[in-house]
Write a structure and sequence with these properties.
The chain contains 6 helices and 12 strands. It is of the alpha/beta class and 218 residues long. The strands form 3 sheets. Strands 1, 2, 3 and 4 form a 4-stranded mixed β-sheet that branches. Strands 5, 6, 7 and 8 form a 4-stranded mixed β-sheet that branches. Strands 9, 10, 11 and 12 form a 4-stranded mixed β-sheet that branches. The longest helix has 15 residues. It is flat. The model has no long low-confidence stretch (mean pLDDT 87).
Length: 218
Amino acid sequence: MNDDLRLQQRVTDELEFEPSVDPAHIGVSVREGVVSLSGHVSSFAEKFAAERAVRRVKGVKAVAQELEVRLPSDRKLADDEIAARAVRILNWDVSVPHGRVSVKVEHGVITLGGEVEWQFQRAEAERDVRKLGGIKSVVNDIAVVPNVRSEDVRATIRAALERNAEVEANKITVTVSGGKVTLGGKVNAWTEREAVERAAWSTPGVTQVEDDIELARP
């Protein structure tokens, strides 16, 4: 059995292990470490959970997400009802600045807009609406508008990497230009790469992260 077939089996096993995913209608193919998911799921939350499960598998270099959300007839909601629920859940979340995030819903697709000061606020708003039933996808167009210096951003990211037990900080390069952070170097696992990205996105002033980190061959 070649490497791609072994990885395909591990991904299939992980999808079957994940309780929030029904793998019955999900197809898995692998080519040179890149996993493609096809088929359909019953909710956007399940679609996201399936992708997260695949990324946990050792040896996965990238994920091509082609899953379609097919809502059961009893889960379909009118756009105005989805929009009202999205606004309520955002208002309940103290992490999201009140009145700074706009919501648009069209054919079950939620588009978030507006401006916030921190990346975690942008991410939290998306996490909130992903939980809603009756949606097909989420488009996050919220802009992060910071007011910090590039050298402060780089120093904060480097310090976060040094503290993180999952990351070999000396193997990671960090370049900052305005609010854009470019990450380089090499890691041993996808989870380590995600930890580095998370450290970058958690830093005040970061509006864009370009991840050029390479995964070492298993």
